[in-house]
Amino acid sequence: MKRLSVYKFIFVLALTFSQVAFSQDVNFETTLKYIQNEKPTKYEVIDSIFGSFERDSTKMKLALKTFRADDYNEGICFSLNALGIINRNISNYDQSIALHKEAKAYAEKAENIELKIISINMIGVAYRRMDLIKPALDNHTEALKIAYSVINPSETIENSIAVSQNSIGNIYLALKQYDYAIIQFKKSLEIESKANNKLGLAINYHNIGYAKEALGDLDTALANYEKSLSYNNEIDSEIGRVICYNSIGGIYLKQKNYEDAEPIINEALDRALKVEDKFYIASSYVNLGQLEIELNQLETAEKNLKKAYDIATNYNLRSSIAQSCKLLSKLSQKNNDYKSSLDYYKKAVEIENTILTEQNLQYVNDIAIEYENEDKNNQIKALASENEAVRLRLERNRKILWTSLLGLAILSIVLIIINRNKALKRDKRILTLEQDMLRNQMNPHFIFNSLNSIKLYIINNEKENAVYYLNKFSKLIRKILMASKEKESSLEDEIETMKLYMNIENIRFSNQIDFKIHVDNSINTDVIKVPSLVLQPFLENALWHGLSSKPNDKKVELNILKTSANYITVEIIDNGIGRKASAEIKESKKLKRNSVGIDITKARLANFSESFANSYSLEIEDLYENDQPSGTKVILKIPIKKIK
User: Fold this and answer.
1) Which of 156, 299, 519, 625 has the most CB atoms in a 10 Å sphere around its CB?
2) What is the mean pLDDT of residues 91-115?
């Protein structure tokens, strides 16, 4: 800090004794010459002297040319990063990444760890803006690793750590793991608060607001957006204002407060067009289109949503493409154009699942897993194709009915149209359900935590355990993906998969769980069919809500009985702390994770039961011993007698 003060003092003197009527260009030339002579190596020194010009591409290009001629590596790196940010802010992401990568090379040549960390973080930010999650996460993780290796980090490195944590939080947002995202943002916020970095504070408060909005806490989200806006106003950040106006307008939309939403969304669009940032221009058009749909201004809504779609497509902004497609699907449905509605919806789902697949690649590192992820994508596409085939058959049948029933009364025609629309909505619901099932089964945190547990065996040189559990893990992943190809599987396969699942989860419980399976001899497990992976959510609940807070003597029983000719009965019994105590623990936690696994399973069981004479039933009993909670018992009856 002492050296920085000396640099500032010398530079102020140089400007003071220069001519008073210096123009901006002369000031730039004087500053450039000063840096040329002094060649400072610390980022904070370069930025404090030269930072006021870093948004001017013409001046930065001239500086780059000058520093190249002087072979001044730190100056070259600073100029390249400034040009990379300029290109990123006008959505020239490929050029931005190329400039930041070149900056990284010069930082390495100068052996300047501060500039290297900054360059790597900037590469990650550009990839994240393109929704390319894997390279974004790779770069931010690398930057964080290098920063933490520094024994006495400077303020610049501390700030870089905050940038990395903020960006990793944004990646958790894309993964829809909002509680984990908030943890990262708060870590970043703590660093930015100590440094009184108002830009960093503005960014983190906005991101926390986004996560809170996704969790449904609109009031807290709005408070965070407004706090972010106040910081952006303090530092006069126009792009920051655009972001906050869009987000505040989005909250008003969800609150159905259209009167307040309209002026702020229009203001966001006007400002976005002035700063020429395509990412936020597309976001503003999406918000405006959504508002116009709610106000039933369908023609202008379609124009604005198509503008958003075209901009997002031209600049490969995939999350914006997905948002605009979802709203165009809703708009087409309002216009009774169900074919276009389904096409737009499929496009949105395809893009969202592509992003999620790329995120999952971070947690695996061999060709087999990459293949199986690709196979998962193929299944999602196959479901979409199946839905399209159903839609075409329904359309063909509809035409036949119109031809053959031309003479029927108007009431009959109306009833037929209603039935057709209900069938389309049902098929769309089934498609969405199957896609949710695929995403839930390939939970990235389960994969990541399982691999971490296996990694501990490797670190502790427990090779046999590592190989044993790695084989189990690979079999489980393969079985999950193979089971995902079918809507139902044999009871035998389901039992085998649950054994593997419990085996893997037991690693994280230090193998303390006593898991037993009992199957009635009268049951032919090879013949009986059940929905694929239907038991996993119940076993997961037994582990994480019943047994995770219990210190020892952890037991889980899986009993499969035949109580009648129409059903098999599945009992899952744990000796955990009971539902009441589990709910109290969950309520006391600051971070709450909303599980949708059981809801998805119920919907799948209801869909599965439509082919059977009887429906499924589900009961959950609290077990007591001496008037004290002694566990939970899940009783699931699955029908086995099909409709003839």
Assistant:
1) 156
2) 91
Contact 58, 86 (CB under 8 A): no
DSSP-based three-state secondary structure for 36: helix
Query: At a CB cut-off of 8 Å and minimum separation 6, what does 161 contact?
Result: 144, 147, 148, 153, 191
Residue 628 β-bridge partners: 625
pLDDT digits 0-9 by tens, 198-253? 888 898 899 899 899 889 899 999 999 999 999 999 988 888 898 899 899 889 98
Is the distance from CB of 184 to CB of 168 less than 8 angstroms?
yes
Q: How far apart are CA 116 and CA 113, in angstroms?
A: 5
What residues have CB less than 8 Å from 583, skipping those under 6 apart? none
Number of helices and strands in the chain (H, E)? 26, 7
Three-state SS at 104: helix
Q: Is residue 546 a contact partner of residue 582, using CB atoms and an 8 Å limit?
A: yes
Longest dimension (CA), the chain: 100
Give the number of C-alpha atoms closer than 13 A to the C-alpha of residue 456, restricted to the C-beta side.
Answer: 8
Determine how many CB atoms are found less than 10 A away from the CB of residue 323.
Answer: 25
User: Which stretch of DSSP H or E encloses residue 553?
Assistant: none
Distance between CA atoms of 117 and 207, rounded to whole angstroms? 22
Query: Rounded to an integer, what distance in angstroms lies between the CA atom of residue 85 and that of residue 333?
Result: 40
Which one, of 277, 189, 213, lies nearest residue 241 by Cα? 277
Task: Give the containing element (helix H, strand E) for 297.
Answer: none
The 10 Å Cβ neighbour count of residue 548 is 15
597 within 8 A of 537, measured Cβ to Cβ: yes
- Per-position b or e across 272-282, b if 16+ CB within 10 A of its CB: beeeebbbbbb
Q: State pLDDT tens for residues 421-437.
A: 776 776 666 556 555 55
Task: List 516's β-bridge partners, or say none.
Answer: 557
* Element (DSSP H or E) covering residue 138: helix 133-148
Number of residues assigned to the chain: 644
Q: Both ends of the chain: CA-CA distance in Å? A: 84
Provide long-range contacts, Cβ within 8 A and 24+ apart, for 224-229: 225/251, 228/201, 228/202, 228/203, 229/202
Handedness of CA 175, 180, 186, 187 (dihedral sign): negative
Least confident range of 46-60, 547-561, 592-606:
592-606
CA distance 620 to 612: 23
Distance CA 412, CA 418 (A): 10
Parallel/antiparallel/unpaired status of strands 628-639 and 554-561: unpaired
Hey, is 626 helix, strand or coil? coil
Separation of alpha carbons 363 and 194, rounded Å:
33
- Which residues touch 179 (CB under 8 Å, ≥6 apart)? 211, 215, 591, 592, 593
pLDDT at 60 > cutoff 60: yes
Bridge-based pairing of strands 617-625 and 567-574 is unpaired
The CA distance from 458 to 37, in Å, is: 53
Distance CA 605, CA 597 (A): 12
φ, ψ of residue 639 in degrees (nearest 5): -65, 145
Nearest-angstrom CA–CA distance, 206 and 203:
5
Only one residue has tokens 């900037």, namely 122
Instruction: Tell which phi-psi region holds residue 615, choosing left (phi > 0), alpha (psi between -120 and 50) or beta.
Output: beta
